[in-house]
Amino acid sequence: MVNPVLKWAGGKRQLLDELYARFPTEFNHYHEPMFGGGALFFDLEPADGSINDTNPRLVNFYKQVRDRPEELIDRLKSFEDPENEPNEDREYHDTNRKGKEIKNYYYQQRELFNRRPHDEPFDELEEAALLLYLNRTCYNGLYRENQSGGFNVPIGRYSNPDWVRSEEIRAVSEVLEKTEIHNRDFEYVREVAEEGDLVYFDPPYEPMSPTAYFTDYSAEGFGKEDQERLLELAQELDENGVHVILSNSGVMFEMYDEAGFHVETEGATRAINSDADNRDEVDEIIATNVAPEERGDIGQLKLQNY
């Protein structure tokens, strides 16, 4: 088991036992087309397969972790406390792109991180380092983009934030060594998943209510048409002999049940709030084409396959 490097909204650490309980007895390659923080992937430590995300900066981060872990760690060690004064040797030490005063180091780094959405030249290694730095020093560890694709989460309040995460980076790098990393639409998996493979889908959740939007992790969002495309793809993979497991919000129960999947409701606590008392439990579903009699023993799964 490897710990994820990033905090990520919608993470599945609390659903791991329920997800493993739906795993087939055996499978070949593992694919995760909506990766995010990758809680299941890093707990499973698959030997090979593919991961994908539509967020290009997140994908770049995992590529840098996989290919340049020591350089990434060195760059992270160069960063300063988020409350420090801005670095006068770098851009945005006095004002941001809109002319607003930059008061501390955190907001300067946030401006530097947002080079890509403003079509400015950027260094891939620095962008990856800044993603982790901001992730570990921003408010609640939240990743959120505005409609222009700019990361806009304010500074958090931490007594001793650890943004280097050297042990996690090295461990994650090893797990990713033989994994293909894509920055495409989730339907890419149609091209790579073969009979006997396992695909886990973890889409941005369909809202439980008009005010409960779980799709603000990127500027593009994930709407009704995307949910319908996802179901169609899951059905196609099922027809091709691919094992499929999918988690989603409770409002999607009927949709997958009517499509012939095995669907059950699970309670899960949202873990993106720094205050444990304010983490709400919401209904989630797990849908799969793996029949109960075809499922493996949760405690022995990894030993059988790896």
Protein described:
By secondary structure, the protein is of the alpha/beta class. It has two domains: 13-54 and 184-305, Rossmann fold; 63-161, Orthogonal Bundle (Adenine-specific Methyltransferase, domain 2). The chain contains eleven helices and seven strands. The protein has a seven-stranded mixed sheet, with helices on both faces. The longest helix is centred in the C-terminal third of the chain and has 16 residues, at 224-239.
Task: Give a short summary of the structure.
It comes from Haloarchaeobius iranensis. By secondary structure, the chain is of the alpha/beta class.
Task: Describe the structure using short key phrases.
Adenine-specific Methyltransferase, domain 2; 2 domains; seven-stranded mixed sheet; methyltransferase; S-adenosyl-L-methionine; EC 2.1.1.72; sequence-specific DNA binding; S-adenosyl-L-methionine binding
List the helices and strands and how they pair.
Blueprint: H1 16-20, E1 30-32, H2 39-44, E2 49-52, H3 56-67, H4 69-77, H5 105-113, H6 124-137, H7 166-175, E3 179-182, H8 189-192, E4 198-201, H9 224-239, E5 243-249, H10 253-258, E6 262-269, E7 281-288, H11 301-305
Parallel strand pairs: 1-2, 1-4, 2-3, 4-5
Antiparallel strand pairs: 5-7, 6-7
Helix pairs in contact: 3-6, 3-7, 4-6, 5-6
The CATH class label of the largest domain is: Alpha Beta
Give the name of the CATH superfamily of the largest domain: Vaccinia Virus protein VP39
Strand content: 5-15%
Distance between the termini: 13 Å
Largest sheet: 7 strands, mixed
The number of helices is 11
The whole-number mean of residue pLDDT values reads 89
Helix content: 25-40%
